[in-house]
Amino acid sequence: MKSTVSTHARHTWPAFDEAALFALLDCIPGTAIQAYTPDGTLVFWGAQSETLYGWPRSEAVGRKLGELFMPPEQAAAFMGDVIRALAQGGDIEPGVFSLQARDGRTVSVYSSHTWLRKPDGQVLLFCMDTDLTTLEAARQDAQRARRRLDFLLQTSGESVWEWYTADDALVHGPQAASLFGLPADQLPVSMHEQLELIAEADRERVRGVQAACLAGEERPLRVEYRLGRGEYAGRWFEERAHVIERDAAGQPSLVMGIVADVDERHRADDAIRTLAYYDPLTKLPNRRLLLERLQHAQALGERSGLRGAVLFLDLDGFKAVNDGYGHATGDLLLQAVATRLVACVRASDTVARLGGDEFVILLEQVAEGEAKTCERIVALADKLCQALASAFQLGEHSHQISTSIGISLFLGSHEDANALLEQADRALYRAKHAGRNTWRFHCERLQRRFSRSLLQAGSLTARPDGVVPDLAFYPRANARLEVVGATAAAALPGIRGGATGFGQGAQPPGLERQTLQLACDILARWQADPVLARLVLSVEVGAALLSDAGFARDVTAMLGERDLAATNLELVVDADLTDDARLQAARTQVRRLADDGVRVALTGFGATPLTVLDRLPAHALYLDETLTGCLGASSPALRAAIACARALGVDAVARNVQSARQFQRLRDAGGPLAEGPLFGQGRTLDAFEHWVLARSGRHRDEAA
């Protein structure tokens, strides 16, 4: 810009000498001033020039511009411009120059020039330099930042937008079209149109965040949403924005923001959450998520007063499938089990896999009272047992398993979540010891109560093959015709070609366990009645089950969890164990049971070697039917066998007593205990109890 000062005034030498002028120029702060002749020789080097360019005055004065801060070529061109300006009597245009300090650094300055003619006619040019180095650096930084921002926006899938609230105008950056998968001419041009682009499920949430931002909240707007239409419908996006300008009334007038595609991050977050909270094989919740939901269910129950439950399940027979058919088949089986379990429960319940073949079902808000809660849980437990007892068809093979279930109840947050799982786990192992394919409550009081109520209702758990044991009861009487006990045997169509009745030999091991389990439930039921509580209940046990190393432990557990006296249970064992290995295994188990107080009865006494009695403890001996039949009821051998039993301090029991005459002969021979058709055919549980109570002079309704 040209000065308005007159040429005459501007070019007139001041009314003081040169030294005074230079001293005055030295006092001007912030401006580096030099004076030089038209050939570029410096005659004045101000104090600020020393600071800016690093040359001391003593070295600068007398040197050419091209020797100091200006390269020779640049100095020659500059001086040419100066000479032309002087010749024309005009101004030297100011400008920005990049000069060089003594230490080699670049110095950016804004230079303005003027010239004065001394009284002797000599012309001096004065240069006034303002340091722009910091400003130039800032400008360059801003340019670099803008280039970086443009690059980042182009490569990161983000786009900038501006919203002018007065007329609802929305201006998108150039990356928006590719970001949203829309043609440029279809991009929203107002915030109203932008909201219409968002999925309906997210729209109100976005409106709420925008309203809060415009209402004066200082925090930046940040919201995520999905697109509702276009090529990228369903993809997740994130917007971050802030109010940039406000009008005179303080209302937002300009909002600027940035939008980014965060769909991959959402997918990654979902994958991480899945790994953290779900079992990768079955896609069921894992232990971590189960505990979180259990704590939530406890808190919910505390407010509502409704009870919940934890069911801990372990698969019976899974190891055989996994080991025999391979882990791939085992994995398929676990997935199929997961599907069946989920189908058995409500949508609000949780089915989780803890690992291996262990599953947990969390039941929320089951019922208000304990009784109603237990009834519903027991119904579900039976349903689960039946669901998993059905065969699994995996490829070409059909596989049979079952499940054992431990149950723990909760109301509110009184119990630690981990403690509830441990309680259910302990109940699970009691269920396994009770014969498997069944359930057990953690609380023994509930177990006794609901075992009895189920028996009264006729509810029995199915075996893995789908068969339900139907027990028949055969009374046992003493010489005075008083009922002292009964033998319980399973009557199952299809087993060994017909019904398995009393005295027909050992049942399949799985069925024997079921029969034992039910027998213990029945004994628990009888404890409430003084007449029935005196009875001994006998169950036949085969060599295969006796050879199981855990059999004695399982029986003890069955008795213990029902708080039963061991002497009320009698196990009938076939004394004809001629195989030494089987005899040894049976001996170990029988001795353990006898030590715990369980009665043991041996069959075939009188026809098997007496040496068996030295190795198998017994509380009762079943007389061989060759001694007790009608023809032999008064034989010397029978008398000797009964006398031998008495000498050993054990009961003698005669089976298959069919008539009063035969019973009288047995009584004459020594009066053993007797069982058989004389006392009726096998009865159902209810019929047997009615019969016993009637003989005692009482009726069932009186007993209740």
UniProtKB/TrEMBL annotation:
Residues 306-444 form the GGDEF domain. It comes from the Bacteria. Pfam families: EAL, GGDEF, PAS_3, PAS_4. Residues 447-696 form the EAL domain. One of its GO terms (molecular function) is catalytic activity. InterPro entries: Biofilm_reg_signaling, EAL_dom, EAL_sf, GGDEF_dom, Nucleotide_cyclase, PAS, PAS-assoc_C, PAS-like_dom_sf. Residues 17-89 form the PAS domain. Residues 221-274 form the PAC domain. Signal peptide: none annotated. This is Diguanylate cyclase. It comes from Crenobacter caeni.
